[in-house]
Design a protein that fits this description.
The chain is an alpha+beta fold and 136 residues long. The protein has a domain of 85 residues: Thiol Ester Dehydrase, Chain A (Roll). 27% of the residues lie in helices and 35% in strands. It is built from 4 helices and 5 strands. The chain has a 5-stranded antiparallel beta sheet with strand order 1-3-4-5-2, covered by helices on one side. The longest helix is centred in the middle third of the chain and has 16 residues. The protein is elongated and about 55 Å long. The two termini are 24 Å apart. The relative contact order is 0.22.
C-alpha cells in the first residue's frame, strides 16, 4: 500500500498532454456533441480557426487529473467555477496546474489554471473538492 500525505495549503500539482484527434473522437462518442467547430475541420477553418477546436470539457479533464493526483483517492470534485478564456485547437499541448488554497476535513478549494506552452491561459478558476464518502 502506498503512503499518502494529506494535501496542505500551497501544495501544487500539474498534468500536461496534447489534445489528440483520437481523443476528440472518443469525447464526441461519449458526449454526443457534434458541434461543427469540434468535429468538422472545414467548418472550423471557415470560422477562422487553424483546425478543429478541442472540447472545453475535455481540456477541463486535464485539470481533473491534476486535482485527483493532488488530493488523492479520498476526494472528488464537488464544484467547479471556470472561465474559458480562449479556444484550444486539437493538437495543442495544454498544462493544467492546480494549487491548494484552503483545506479542511469537509472541503478543499484549489485554484485551477490551464495554459498553452506559450503561457497563454485558456481556462482559469477554482475547484471545490469534497470527501468521496460522506463522513459520519
Amino acid at each position: 500500500m502506498t503512503n499518502f500525505t494529506a494535501p496542505q495549503v500551497g501544495d501544487t500539482q500539474s498534468f500536461r498532454k496534447t489534445m489528440t484527434v483520437a481523443e476528440q473522437a472518443m469525447f464526441t462518442g461519449i458526449s454526443g456533441n457534434l458541434a461543427p467547430l469540434h468535429v468538422d475541420q472545414r467548418a472550423a477553418r471557415a470560422a477562422g480557426f487553424d483546425g478543429m477546436l478541442a472540447f472545453e470539457l475535455a481540456v477541463t479533464a486535464l485539470a481533473s487529473t491534476a486535482l485527483n493526483r493532488l488530493a488523492g483517492p479520498g476526494w472528488r470534485i464537488g464544484g467547479l467555477q471556470l472561465a474559458f478564456a480562449a479556444a484550444v485547437l486539437v493538437g495543442d499541448t495544454i498544462e493544467a496546474a492546480v494549487k491548494v488554497m484552503q483545506v479542511s476535513a469537509e472541503s478543499m478549494t484549489c485554484s485551477v489554471r490551464c495554459s498553452r506552452a506559450s503561457g497563454d491561459v485558456v481556462i482559469e478558476g477554482t475547484a471545490t473538492l469534497v470527501p468521496a464518502r460522506p463522513r459520519g
